[in-house]
């Protein structure tokens, strides 16, 4: 404001005021340049921080903890499978138990990751601890059930009641206590990513705006400085200051566009990468537990209805369409519906999505046949169907989900990489620009000030 | 210097614009929580116009964890969605079962409790399984689809006898006009507790029903905070204590009081 007032006053040819004016205008110019570069520096640090958290730290770790749910539910499914096989499938039983061990080790790894991610949140640490404790208890129970089952030497199908009784305790512990905690752990860790993203999504545009404002002020000051010098010293051109103006404009446009690109890269990584990957990993984990519900349906007659309903519930949570019972649902799925709601419904777009959809429909169709055998009392055939056609279609469906996940994972990696490489170029050029513009301003102003020495 | 100030105020303005994109109940000091007024031991309005029950205690715990003052609003089953969308209530803790249809309009934190459809009979006449209802007469209470679910979803040929409400149905059960009542187990437990001598809950546990805490769509930070409160409620033993307080003597199976699998906030 003071500056505007002096400008408003009639021009006074007092020579002493000229260097003072030059100093003031240069000072404001340098200050606004400093603001411009500070905004760009803070903006790019913020963006880099966001890319780091979403792309390298919390993001991938959250996805890894989602593997905990998958590993745990497949462990329980493998035990159910082994119990259902009886003495008819020695080879398959061995394979199921080997897979159980493999999943156990995956669960351990995921728990370690989850513990790392829990940071200083006491509630998350308690959850990890509680899952570890429960897992010990679960292994004790399944060990007992498997041993009794082996001794019973029963035909394929439901094992003796005492085995079912112990397995029931194990699976209740798994399904009602451990799996929910594992699932919630992933959701809770996912909030780190969401919060980081929301935070950066506000800060980066803000700093971008600040860079534009500071840049425009710097440009106006540089022009003003040139006009002032031109009128006072009767020089039309000040090449150094002109170059500084151009360099400032370029630096501003480039920096602002980099921040814009990074904001977009972060958005892309979150909404086209992280979110769908997490959703698909969760969907895949739920699908694994559905497979377990099929085996449990066969081996526990008393609870068969409950397990069937749980299977339906999970199907509905993945691919929702209005259906009161499993029969109606499978009918609709097999006939081919569109516009599914649920966790998976909106994700199954594109060629790979259609493949996954078709495999899911075939899996449900195989389930229908499997249940028909079970209802007709043809237990042996039901076991064969469960281990044969149902498992085959499940594998196709699972592979389709993995492929779809990979597609989003690639998009995620690409977005993070793009974001980081544009940031790198900004980081490389920014100090250079600061130096060059600084020197040019000095080169433009210093000789004029020297005339007053 | 002044320019820097102008710049700062411009920044502050930008910040203001950016942050009010989505309103959250986390920004409020006082919130309104809707609870049922008609279910004994779950959400019940006493003659002195205060509320009691499991849901009411859960509402109190969650509000406390969020650090909010709260007032309670009585709702019936049919009003729950309206109360949220008309902004009469900020949270709904009213045996509000999570479903895909409801999720299209309402955001659910939780579930804070998983209940099952269950069967209430006269003492000494147990029914182990939903299939045992075949050929028996059961209440069909107006506004509840529990009895139809037995016939249509479970394809069990039970005989449905219509009643206006649970009180009339309970009288009919005691008077041997019907053989069983079936609905959400916590509702049955509340009813059984009122008359412990003559009735028994069978723990048949068939359809799983997940009671969530409803809120307006888009309020993800609040949903995450409520989920955290529910986790705490189970970890510090409050959930087990409340379940025991309200349903301990009802015959409801309370052997696992474990945090349920959350629905997720996005």
Automatic annotation (TrEMBL), chain A:
Bilayer-spanning residue ranges: 20-42, 210-230, 236-260, 426-446
Keywords: Membrane, Transmembrane, Transmembrane helix
Name of the molecule in the record: Secreted protein
Organism: Nonomuraea turkmeniaca
UniProtKB/TrEMBL annotation, chain B:
Keywords: Signal, Transport
Record-linked PROSITE patterns: PROKAR_LIPOPROTEIN, SBP_BACTERIAL_3
Record SUPFAM superfamilies: Periplasmic binding protein-like II
Signal peptide: 1-18
Top-rank taxon, per record: Bacteria
Keyword Mitochondrion included in the entry's annotation: no
GO CC field: extracellular region; outer membrane-bounded periplasmic space
UniProt record, GO biological process: amino acid transport
SMART domains: PBPb
InterPro entries registered for this protein in UniProt: Bact_solute-bind_prot3, SBP_3_CS, Solute-binding_3/MltF_N
Every Solute-binding protein family 3/N-terminal domain range: 30-250
Family stated for the protein in its record: Belongs to the bacterial solute-binding protein 3 family.
PANTHER family to which the protein is assigned, alphabetical: ABC TRANSPORTER GLUTAMINE-BINDING PROTEIN GLNH, AMINO ACID ABC TRANSPORTER PERMEASE
Protein's name according to its UniProt entry: Transporter substrate-binding domain-containing protein
Organism of derivation: Nonomuraea turkmeniaca
């Amino acid at each position: 404001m003071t500056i505007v007032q002096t400008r408003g006053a009639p021009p006074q040819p007092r020579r002493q005021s000229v260097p003072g004016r030059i100093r003031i205008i240069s000072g404001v110019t340098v200050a606004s340049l400093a603001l411009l570069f500070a905004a760009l520096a803070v903006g790019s640090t913020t963006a880099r921080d966001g890319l780091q958290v979403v792309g390298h730290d919390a993001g991938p770790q959250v996805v890894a903890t989602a593997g905990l749910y998958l590993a745990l539910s497949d462990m329980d499914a493998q035990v159910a499978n082994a119990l259902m096989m009886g003495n008819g499938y020695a080879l398959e039983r061995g394979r199921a138990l080997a897979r159980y061990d493999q999943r156990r080790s995956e669960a351990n790894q995921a728990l370690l990751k989850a513990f790392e991610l829990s940071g200083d949140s006491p509630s998350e640490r308690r959850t990890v601890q509680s899952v570890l404790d429960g897992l010990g208890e679960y292994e004790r129970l399944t060990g007992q059930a498997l041993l009794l089952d082996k001794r019973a030497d029963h035909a394929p199908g439901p094992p003796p009641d005492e085995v079912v009784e112990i397995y029931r305790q194990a699976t209740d512990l798994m399904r009602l206590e451990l799996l929910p905690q594992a699932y919630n752990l992933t959701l809770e860790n996912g909030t780190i990513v969401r919060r980081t993203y929301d935070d950066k999504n506000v800060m980066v545009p803000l700093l971008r705006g600040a860079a534009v404002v500071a840049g425009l002020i710097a440009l106006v000051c540089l022009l003003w400085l040139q006009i002032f010098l031109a009128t006072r010293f009767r020089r039309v051109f000040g090449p150094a200051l002109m170059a500084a103006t151009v360099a400032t404009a370029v630096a501003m446009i480039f920096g602002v566009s980099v921040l814009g690109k990074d904001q977009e890269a972060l958005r892309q990584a979150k909404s086209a990468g992280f979110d769908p990957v997490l959703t698909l990993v969760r969907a895949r984990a739920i699908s694994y537990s559905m497979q377990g519900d099929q085996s449990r349906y066969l081996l526990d007659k008393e609870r068969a209805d409950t397990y069937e309903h749980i299977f339906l519930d999970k199907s509905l949570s993945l691919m929702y369409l209005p259906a009161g019972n499993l029969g109606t649902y499978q009918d609709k799925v097999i006939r081919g519906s569109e516009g599914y709601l649920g966790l998976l419904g909106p994700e199954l777009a594109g060629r790979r999505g259609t493949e996954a959809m078709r495999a899911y429909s075939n899996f449900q169709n195989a389930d229908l046949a499997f249940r028909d055998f079970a209802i007709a009392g043809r237990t042996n055939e039901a076991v064969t169907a469960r281990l044969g056609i149902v498992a085959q279609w499940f594998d196709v469906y699972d592979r389709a989900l993995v492929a779809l996940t990979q597609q989003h994972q690639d998009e995620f990696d690409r977005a993070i990489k793009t974001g980081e490489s544009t940031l790198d170029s900004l980081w490389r050029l920014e100090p250079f620009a600061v130096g060059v513009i600084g020197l040019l301003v000095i080169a433009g102003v210093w000789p004029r000030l020297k005339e007053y020495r | 210097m002044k320019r820097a100030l102008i710049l700062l105020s411009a920044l502050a303005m930008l910040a203001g614009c950016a942050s009010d994109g989505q309103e959250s109940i986390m920004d409020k000091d006082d919130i309104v929580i809707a609870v049922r007024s008609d279910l004994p031991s779950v959400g019940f309005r006493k003659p002195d116009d205060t509320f009691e029950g499991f849901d009411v205690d859960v509402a109190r715990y969650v509000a406390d964890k969020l650090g909010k003052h709260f007032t309670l609003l009585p709702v019936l089953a049919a009003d729950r969605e309206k109360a949220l969308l008309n902004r009469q209530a900020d949270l709904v803790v009213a045996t509000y079962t999570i479903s895909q249809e409801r999720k299209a309009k309402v955001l659910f934190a939780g579930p804070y409790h998983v209940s099952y459809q269950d069967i209430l009979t006269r003492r000494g006449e147990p029914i182990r399984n939903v299939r045992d209802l075949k050929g028996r007469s059961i209440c069909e209470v107006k506004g509840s689809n529990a009895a139809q679910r037995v016939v249509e979803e479970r394809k069990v040929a039970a005989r449905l006898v219509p009643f206006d409400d649970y009180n009339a149905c309970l009288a009919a059960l005691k008077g041997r006009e019907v053989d069983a009542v079936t609905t959400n187990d916590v509702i049955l437990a509340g009813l059984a507790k009122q008359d412990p001598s003559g009735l028994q809950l069978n723990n048949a546990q068939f359809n799983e029903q997940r009671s969530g805490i409803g809120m307006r769509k888009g309020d993800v930070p609040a949903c995450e905070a409520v989920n955290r409160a529910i986790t705490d409620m189970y970890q510090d033993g409050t959930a087990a204590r409340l379940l025991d307080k309200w349903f301990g003597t009802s015959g409801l199976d309370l052997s696992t009081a474990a945090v349920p699998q959350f629905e997720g906030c996005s």
